[in-house]
Specification:
- The protein has one domain: Four Helix Bundle (Hemerythrin (Met), subunit A), CATH 1.20.120.
- The protein is mostly helical.
- The protein is 88% helix and 0% strand.
């Protein structure tokens, strides 16, 4: 395994671990924590939905990066490598932005979540392009 695949594998595994930890917190202690901070039931429900969405997208993309790294595909395709990086950045923007809204009740800038989502889309499009161009060159 080369250095790039190793780094991506480590980052994917850490992202997965963080996702599970935040998901567990969201399922168990977060509702009471939010209620004790004075949020209405409607606000708590919205924050729990945001947390669940953030963890779901983070896990999907951690698994995608894991597959690219473990298979070695990212080392054979520059577009697949770019896809992995875009997915990591998307996780920071999309999931990180939602987490900041849930846990800190703040966000650096409102656009970080849709920018993160756009990075996810670009990552998947780069992955598709890597398969298309590999097929054409074979």
């Amino acid at each position: 395994m080369n250095q790039l695949a190793r780094v991506l594998l480590i980052l994917a595994a850490l992202s997965g671990a963080i996702c599970v930890a935040i998901g567990a917190m969201g399922a168990h202690s977060l509702p009471k924590r939010l209620e004790s901070q004075g949020f209405t039931q409607e606000q708590v429900d919205k924050k729990l939905q945001q947390c669940e969405l953030a963890t779901r997208y983070q896990m999907f993309h951690a698994l995608a990066i894991l597959a690219l790294a473990a298979s070695g595909y990212c080392t054979r395709s520059k577009l697949a490598t770019i896809a992995s990086v875009l997915m990591l950045l998307g996780t920071i923007g999309f999931s990180g932005g939602l987490y900041s809204m849930v846990f800190a009740n703040e966000i650096i800038h409102w656009s970080i979540v849709p920018i993160g989502g756009s990075l996810f889309i670009l990552g998947w499009l780069h992955l598709a392009a890597s398969a298309i161009f590999q097929r054409l060159s074979s």
